[in-house]
Amino acid sequence: MIPARFDYVAPTTVDEAVRALADAGEDGKVIAGGQSLLPVLRMRLAAPTKLVDIGRIPELRAIREDGDAIVIGAMATHYEVQRDPLVREHAALITAATDTVADPQVRHRGTFGGSIAHADPAGDLLAPALAMDAEMVVAGMDGRRTVPAAEYFVDFFTTAMTPAELLVEVRLPKYTGWRAHYEKFNRVAQSWSMVAVAAMVRTDGGTIAEARIGLTNMASVPVRARAVEDALVGQAATAENIKAAAANAANGTSPTSDGNADGEYRSHLARVLTGRALTAAIG
Amino acid sequence: MTATAEPEVGKARLRKEDERLVTGRTRWTDNITLPGMLHLAVLRSPLAHARIAEIDTSAAREMPGVIAVFTAKDLDPAREIGLPCAWPVTPDMKHPRRPVLAADKVNFAGEGVAVVAARSAAEAQDALEAIDVEYEDLPVVLDMEAALAEGTTVIHEDLGTNENAVWVFDSGEAGTGGDVQQAITDAEVTVTRRFRQQRLVPAFMEPRATVVDPTGPQLTVWSSTQIPHILRVMTALTLGLPEHKLRVIAPDVGGGFGGKIGVLPEELMTLLVARKLGKPVKWNESRSDCMATAHHGRDQIQDITITATRDGTITGLKVDLLADMGAYLGVVAPGVPLLGAFMFNAIYKIPSYRFACTNVFTNKTITDAYRGAGRPEATFAIERIMDELAVELDMDPLALREKNWIKHEEFPYTTVAGLTYDSGNYEAATERAKQLFDYDGLRREQEARRASNDPVQLGIGISTYTEMCGLAPSRVLGSLAYGAGGWEHAAIRMLPTGKVEVVTGSSAHGQGHETAWSQIVADQLGVPFEDIEVLHGDTQFSPRGMDTYGSRSLTVGGTALVLAAHRVLDKAKPVAAHLLECAVDDIEFAGGKFAVKGTDKSVGIQDVALAVFAAHDLPDGYEANLDSDATFDPDNFSYPHGTHLCATEVDTETGRVSIRSYVCVDDVGKVVNPLIVEGQVHGGLAQGIAQALYEEAVHDESGTLTSGTFADYHLPSAADLPTFVTDRTETPSTTNPLGVKGVGEAGTIASTPAVVNAIVDALRHMGVADVEMPCSPMRVWQAIQGGAR
Ligand SMILES: Cc1cc2nc3c(=O)[nH]c(=O)nc-3n(C[C@H](O)[C@H](O)[C@H](O)COP(=O)(O)OP(=O)(O)OC[C@H]3O[C@@H](n4cnc5c(N)ncnc54)[C@H](O)[C@@H]3O)c2cc1C
Q1: Which of the listed residues A14, A100, A115 should we mutate to test ligand 1's pocket, taking the one with most ligand atoms within 8 A of CB?
Q2: pLDDT score at B789
Q3: What is the pLDDT of residues B307-349, one digit of tens each?
Q4: Starting from the edge strand earliest in sequence, which strands make up the sheet with B641-651, in order?
Q5: Global pTM?
Q6: What local confidence, expressed as pLDDT, does residue B787 receive?
Q7: Whose CA is closest to B134, among B106, B153, B115?
Q8: What is the ipTM of this complex?
Q9: Of residues B286, B696, B776, nearest to A1 (C-beta)
Q10: Nearest residue (CA) to ligand 1, atom 18
């Protein structure tokens, strides 16, 4: 399988990259780790005429602390994110979810920003980003803008970015001291989530003070399980309370049907896995 | 030059071939590049059933790098070429002509309609997009029962039916047993079930590829095939080419599992294009094309009825199969269900048996042999229904099996299907498996989990299998209307320096022949393992061979090798006697040395080889040549058997199944290399478990394969599988001098029912009596919901 012909540029700054994208118009495409894009090109499901490789822009690789936030550069690989102590300490949900992404080969090439920008509803980093109220920093010809996660994911494989924009970095508020767990359910090891639950809780004594829960693959975009969160706050962290709250996990979702799961089964899984994610997070 | 003291056979030698195979530093077909070589790309139909109104290739011909574009009209204007089927199971079997490229009509999604030859693979691929095909949709026929119904669309109009053949075996009529209808009438207990064998993709690691070089004295075909010899004959016959002008080479081949026993339209297409253009041509394929167009496996509906007395003695077995051939016939496809016909009775003494199979055409990819071919299907059905019968009788499933199986002292035993099992010891294998598994302990745990309503339930699955392999006695194949024999050939060439070349007609594609064959020859001739080179897969130096499938290589090809080695020794003996100045009768051979009995005078076989090469001092009239060959045709199959026990944990909240432990005790007779046996068992288990839990080729209602990539076709990896506990009993086969039995398919054949039995066993108390394969979490969960209702 061979992609259709394309031109290739590899700028070294964000400004150059943005210009290259603007020049290419509708026919341009960013390539990051290429793990999702290359299969698309090889199967000729898309045929952009210009690829802008952002792998040589040093700025995009960094993971840093910026006041109340942890900032992950779009080109940080899953492997780098997985091992980053700052992420582990302040954004443990990201570490937990990244651990479940694909296999070591893909994690060495695939990027955090690529996953977010690709916006595959089965991708494992979207629900954590949503649950954490991440902010996406996007660069275009008119400069940079910040898009909250709740507005960033628009539809299947569709974000609030225009084709001429570049995702530069993702800002994650610190959730230091929160307990997190990512509960993923898939058919074979190293494959995509059928359903997954990203759960994060702050407990105070034996009581759940705050809870944030994101669901993977329960709609065309990641969704917050608000009903569960609301039901948990102020409750004692007991098995019965978790179970009762988790029963609301599928409320307001619109899961799709495919060969692995129909909507009814996905909703059932969301409830079971939410209970398990919370139980594991609370520990 | 000393011979190895310890026998080579039985040693866990690391495989000689692995360094080059594992690192990929070898010649795969796709690595072959010839000067001036052109590349092919095939335009494939997106529709499963449609008339071709028009194909416009004019724009594609103008594309950069394009040398030619061909359609059926150009490649086969007279419409003479039809792909071969070697197994006309009945005299009136329907055999539709399968053209190299579809001419008027496409019959499955993926069928080739045009082919581009270009200077580069990329240019060939680009040109495909410029070809315009106008299709007129036809109704698709996907379901086998619907395909047979009155008034259904007929795929091959000239045949007038979607029925390929009906093949029946009846023990009453054959005189091998009683009348099953009577058994059903008289039965105290009858159990009837319908099982479905889903479609599977053989998923070999190296996709298919062919290179054809039309320059030079012979037309040379390289192909990633399991069957270079058969391919040569079939290609010659199909295209009307003189066989001696054709050379076929299977270089290193990256797996097959039966998936590469075809004669492919693409192979013939590549050859035809190469001849037309007078240039070397390569065809290769993407994984997606491979999954959609390389033959699939299984796909049967099995209706099975078993009858028994109240005390658990089986009295009859009746099987009705529907087998999906897909749109055309694969090389052995119509016969695949027949390989199962002799196996439904399995290890049991069953007094009456009837088997009937209806092969059906549908608008899907063709099916054909896939690891086990017919036998996994049969083993699944009988082992599943044995569990159901045990429930019906309220007996322990292992006890029911033991009550009915052929006892060790009853061998050789002629079964109700007419085969004679030469040997076996089901008691020993089962006893060992039970110990390793802790059968009784797990049963107790199962009770406890049921009692406590544990969300994770435990189930135990049993499969006590045998299989016929080592294909095959030529006479038996003849009686089943198979188009060829089942012998195998081997040649041994003694080189002047004492090194040895072994030529085998069995074409290895990952099995480890180079190692095992070296071990056998090392013992037979007493030369070091390292001094032996095993050659295979090229009709130029290996003109005779029947290739590799049906767990036949060692039992048939290995035996040919032993016979050839005996002939080398027979030829060497007079030379040794001459050199040692004694009578031939005074020579004894051991450990690579010809010695004069009762003396310490001896000469090594490698020195004899040098003496024969020099030919200065040989017996009068001696023909200076030690090289020998032999052909072996077995007079029976070999019958490996064993007991597989599987414990599954089923998460009743999600439906997920995990295998907690898997024990198998296989009896494959004498073992040449335990490491290779272990590898074959592990790989076989993985594939058999994959059928139970993961894999399925799914077509949507339009006939499109929706599981066409590894993102949707779930191939398990090591991470999904348990640590296998394997052991062996050793009951030598009496049908070959090595005492060996096949092992290539055993794991696949045995494991699938063990897993499904374990799942059903875990959930039986929740009202679950079956789960359709693959037992995905959703299916298991739905079965639990259904059971609870
Ligand atoms: C075998 C396999 C298994 C996988 N399993 C999983 C899994 O279990 N879970 C999971 O979450 N993911 C999985 N993935 C996907 C993986 O995480 C990818 O790395 C990720 O989806 C895309 O990252 P990438 O860097 O490769 O992006 P690319 O493939 O380079 O790009 C993907 C898309 O995003 C766009 N893009 C990328 N970066 C930017 C940017 N900075 N600004 C604007 N647009 C951008 C590209 O234009 C393209 O459209 C798997 C991939 C493979 C190949």
Answers
A1: A115
A2: 63
A3: 999 999 999 999 999 999 999 999 999 999 999 999 999 999 9
A4: B456-466, B641-651, B657-667, B724-728
A5: 0.97
A6: 81
A7: B106
A8: 0.97
A9: B286
A10: A110
Residue range B245-299, pLDDT digits in tens: 999 999 999 999 999 999 999 999 999 999 999 999 999 999 999 999 999 999 9
| Contact: A260, B776; criterion CB under 8 Å | yes
Q: Give the domain A61-173 fold.
A: 3.30.465
Q: What is the pLDDT of residues A236-274, one digit of tens each?
A: 999 999 999 999 999 999 999 999 999 999 999 999 999
Residues in chain B with CB shorter than 8 Å from the CB of A38 are none
- Beta-carbon separation of B711 and A191 below 8 A: yes
C-alpha to C-alpha distances, B57 to A102, A247, B71, B429, B710, nearest whole angstrom: 42, 59, 9, 63, 32
Q: Which chain B residues have a beta carbon less than 8 Å from that of A187?
A: 694, 714, 776-777
Give me the sign of the Cα torsion angle B770, B772, B776, B779: negative
Touching check for A269 and chain B: CB below 8 Å? yes
Look at residue A114 and give its three-state secondary structure.
Answer: helix
Residue closest via CA to ligand 1's atom 39 equals: A114
Q: Is A268 an interface residue toward B (CB < 8 Å)?
A: yes
d(CA A193, CA A190): 9
Query: Residue A79 — φ and ψ, nearest 5°?
Result: -60, -45
Q: Shortest CB distance from B711 goes to which of A5, A189, A192?
A: A192
Q: CA–CA separation, B537 vs B250, rounded Å? A: 5
Query: What pLDDT digit, counting tens, does each position of B101-134 carry?
Result: 999 999 999 999 999 999 999 999 999 999 999 9
E-strand stretches of B668-707: none
| Tokens 């990929």 -> residue | B24
Q: Does A176 touch chain B (CB under 8 A)?
A: no
Give the pair of three-digit tokens for residue B207: 């996709």
Q: What is d(CA A163, CA A141) in angstroms, rounded to the nearest whole number?
A: 11
Phi, psi of B699 (to 5 degrees): -110, 140
| Domain extent listing, chain A | 7-52, 61-173, 183-282
3-state SS, residue A260: coil
Residue in A35, A99, A188 to test binding to B, most B beta-carbons within 10 Å: A188
Q: How many beta carbons lie within 10 A of that of residue A171, not counting itself?
A: 18
Name the more confident of B6 and A64.
Answer: A64
Residues in chain B: 789
What contacts B198, CB < 8 A, 6 or more positions away? Answer: B298, B299, B691, B695, B696, B697, B772, B773, B774
Would you tell me which CATH number, out of the four given (3.30.43.10, 3.40.190.10, 3.90.78.10, 3.40.50.300), belongs to the domain A7-52? 3.30.43.10
Which residues of chain A have a CB within 8 Å of the CB of B288? 1, 43
Closest-CA distance, B721 to chain A, in angstroms, reads: 10
Interface membership of A243 toward B (CB under 8 Å): no
All residues of chain A having their beta carbon less than 8 Å from the beta carbon of residue B717 are 188-190
Neighbours of B601 (CB within 10 A): 15
Burial class (CB in 10 A: 0-12, 13-18, 19+), B264: buried
Q: Are the beta carbons of B316 and B178 closer than 8 angstroms?
A: yes
Q: Superfamily for A183-282? A: CO dehydrogenase flavoprotein, C-terminal domain (3.30.390.50)
Q: Which domains does chain B have, with CATH numbers?
A: 18-25+487-632 (3.30.365.10), 32-138+205-255+260-293 (3.90.1170.50), 297-471+636-788 (3.30.365.10)
- Numbered residues of chain B with Cβ closer than 8 Å to any chain A Cβ: 121-122, 125-126, 129, 286-288, 653-654, 656, 694, 696, 698, 706-707, 711-712, 714-717, 719-720, 776-778, 781-782
Residues having CB within 6 Å of any atom of ligand 1? A 29-37, 54, 74, 101-102, 106, 110-111, 113-115, 117-118, 123-125, 166-167, 192
Decide if A65 touches B, using CB distance below 8 A.
no
